[in-house]
UniProtKB/TrEMBL annotation:
Coiled coil: none annotated. Residues 144-281 form the N-acetyltransferase domain. GO terms for molecular function: acyltransferase activity, transferring groups other than amino-acyl groups. Keywords: Acyltransferase, Transferase. It comes from the Bacteria. This is GNAT family N-acetyltransferase. The keyword Endoplasmic reticulum does not apply. Pfam families: Acetyltransf_1, DUF4081. SUPFAM superfamilies: Acyl-CoA N-acyltransferases (Nat). It comes from Nocardioides faecalis.
Length: 281
């Protein structure tokens, strides 16, 4: 259905080339949306939602991933307002609004009066990327995770998620689904671990990847091992291995207040390329 006044409609597989051309204007910032489009071919049953496009004179000028996450793609403030209008026309199923700061802010300003209070709002997140060899020596002990790591890796993933988001990923009976997601990343060889004897002392995952970029999530060191440089050398190893195997550019985003993590990423060689914002329900 086309929202004529705003030029917004649901995209289908036939729109995939035009969507990829649009998102390809910034393939690192848009890596999540590109990954989702390529793996689902924009089919709603695989997306678990929809991908919306906004058109002017028949040309796609912006898009928005509308599934569990609401993610604007190449959206101006005006585009974000148009996507907000469409979002308000349906029951809210999104748990997170995330993406470039200006677009998320504009979208949020339109919906905030009707969606209720979010659980958390993070307005200043630094989007970082590296497309060169790391600036510090990689930890040679970092390797791809395997299924035998799951008894120690899964609790670490739960601990990291709970610390970062503020609620357990197992809450509301979602433990089996989260365990399956962790196992899926291990099965894809997208999980990285470092052990000291039997103790897991560093872990990180690839959240999504395309031919242009791979986005890292879930970077974690146990609290009693922090301050020992494990995150710096561990991330250097992740960058080295991901660039060799998956994509030439490695990206992530980090809260502005997480000074220790930002300092570690800077030592590795990450530089800021954009500002993100996240609203969580």
């Amino acid at each position: 259905m086309l929202t004529t006044r705003q030029g917004v409609r649901v995209l289908a597989s036939a729109d995939l080339p035009e969507f990829l051309a649009l998102a390809g204007q910034d393939p690192v910032v848009n890596v999540f949306a590109v990954h989702r489009a390529q793996t689902t071919r924009l089919e709603p049953r695989w997306l678990g939602g929809e991908m919306w496009g906004r058109f002017e004179d028949g040309e796609m000028v912006a898009a928005c991933h509308a599934a569990a996450n609401l993610v604007p793609v190449q959206a101006t403030v005006e585009d974000a307002r148009a996507f907000a209008e469409r979002a308000l026309a349906r029951r809210r199923t999104f748990s997170t609004v995330v993406g470039p700061q200006a677009a998320v802010g504009a979208l949020w300003n339109e919906v905030r009066g009707q969606w209720g209070e979010p659980r958390d709002v993070r307005w200043d997140q630094r989007h970082l990327a590296i497309d060169t060899a790391p600036s510090v020596a990689p930890d040679p002990g970092v390797r791809v995770g395997v299924r035998d790591d799951l008894p120690t890796l899964y609790p670490a993933c739960v601990a990291m998620y709970t610390e970062e988001v503020g609620v357990s990923p197992e809450s509301g009976g979602a433990g089996d689904l989260y365990r399956a997601r962790v196992a899926q990343l291990v099965g894809r060889a997208w999980s990285f671990v470092r052990y000291d004897g039997d103790e897991l002392v560093f872990k990180a995952e690839v959240a999504c990847a395309t031919a242009h970029a791979a986005q890292i999530q879930g970077v974690w060191v146990p609290p009693h091992r922090r301050g020992q440089g494990l995150a710096t050398t561990g991330m250097a190893a992740v960058v080295q291995q991901v660039r060799a195997r998956l994509a030439p550019t490695v990206s992530l985003y980090v809260n502005d207040w997480n000074h220790s993590a930002r300092a570690a990423y800077a030592r590795v060689g990450f530089t800021e390329t954009a500002r993100f914002a996240t609203i969580m329900y």
